[in-house]
Task: structure prediction
Amino acid sequence: MRTSENRKARPSKTAELVAAARAEHIRTVETPLFEDRYAFDMCGRIWRTILSNRLLSQLIIYGLLRKLRPIIPAILRG
Result:
């Protein structure tokens, strides 16, 4: 069983997804709604890898995630 200490050490999946959405928004939109210079740094290792590769991020965001949760690409598109 996890202790509360372990839970604090790892970010939630929601927090990582929000950070990834912010990082993707800043990267792809010419004039972002807000500037979050820490968004990419707050992403987990997997999301940083995905967002570092434009083709991979398009496949994941608009391919895989669209099938799993149809609203996610709309959120990431801004």
Summary: Helices lie at 4-9, 13-28, 39-42, 45-52, 54-68, 72-77.
